[in-house]
Amino acid sequence: MSPRPLVSIVLPNRNHAGYLPTSVEAILHQTWSDIELIVVDDASSDASRDIMNAYRDRDPRVRIITLPTHAGIMRAVTHGLSHAGGEYISIAAADDFIEPTFVQKSVEQLTRIPGAGLCFSDPSEFRDDPRRRNAFPLFLSSAPIHIDGGTLAALLKRNFFSLSANTIVYRRSAFEAAGGYIERLQWLSDVFVAMVVALRHGACYVPEVLTGLRLRPDSYSATNLRNSAAQQALVYEFLALLSQPVYADVRERFREAAFLPEYHFRTLIWLLRSPIGREFLTPRMAGRILLRAPWSAVRGMAPLSARRRLRALSSRIRPPSWTA
């Protein structure tokens, strides 16, 4: 019998000693035991290193990389990935949570569909207690499925949704071929590589909540998204990358899907101001921005039941070709 494939989980950390035990315990208690946990400590000044040293001493699957000076989350992730040895990889967060079956159910689908580049599942959010999460099902299927790249583009064209980074397990070869986490994209690097891999190789989807995203107003993404000038520069960089020859095979699928990392009124202005932005500004893109921008402004105040109902209604429109 051939050995089960190794899954590398990279977890960047900076001063999250209060969150680490919950996150690490969830990772180490996966039903898929063939994992390595690579913790990259980004020059923490709290008790993080003591906590991680204790886990490493009692579990050989834990590896610790200590950065001597603060390098930032993207540098920490890429540094950890350079030490990963798994056939599959996942990027964790020190303040998030994963269910015990997250790795197993994801890898089972990727093993079943050897050509798929990643597996994703339904997102959920929580504030303090990961046991009290708000689930946001995507309603894409009632059973695990594979969606090829072309079908995914057509699906996103009709029924927009995003692949939450914390729900993803990547096939390493596909992740690396897509460029991995491109540091100059900073907080947009995760959405870029996820969409390139999914639109290029297709994706498996597990219709379950297997992970939880902790909501924090001071989180890396939340803080930086409020910086309009920085976000504008990264959106332009996002589009410039898609114009490079290495992404020629997926560029038109991005345009067909009308996919961008954000949809606000400011996004429409940015696209109109830039030659490369105007290339991506299709009628569908403009319409999506005009529809989603007001929703983005009020989504946080809408009842959870209304948000789920709207998602369920929008998911009734599906392209015909699915691989069950």
Please provide a brief summary of the model.
The chain has 324 residues and is of the alpha/beta class. It is 44% helix and 17% strand. The protein is globular, with a radius of gyration of 19 Å.
| Mean pLDDT figure | 91
Q: What is the count of distinct domains?
A: 2
Written as H for each helix and E for each strand, in order along the chain, the element string is EHEHEHEEHEEEEHEHHEEHHHHHHH
* Uncertain residue ranges: 317-324
Helical content stands at 40-55%
Report the structural category: alpha/beta
Shape: globular
| Main sheet record | 8 strands, mixed
**Percent of residues in beta strands:** 15-25%
Q: From the alpha-carbon coordinates, what is the Rg to the nearest angstrom? A: 19 Å
Number of helices: 14
Please give the number of β-strands: 12
Spatial order of the strands forming the largest sheet: 3-2-1-4-10-6-11-9
Measured between the Cα atoms of the first and last residue, the distance is 27 Å
Topology:
Layout: E1 7-13, H1 20-28, E2 35-42, H2 48-58, E3 62-67, H3 73-81, E4 88-91, E5 97-98, H4 102-112, E6 118-122, E7 124-126, E8 134-135, E9 145-147, H5 149-158, E10 169-171, H6 172-177, H7 189-201, E11 203-209, E12 211-214, H8 220-225, H9 228-242, H10 248-257, H11 265-273, H12 275-280, H13 283-298, H14 304-314
Parallel strand pairs: 1-2, 1-4, 2-3, 6-11, 7-12
Antiparallel strand pairs: 4-10, 5-12, 6-10, 7-8, 9-11
Helix pairs in contact: 5-7, 5-10, 7-10
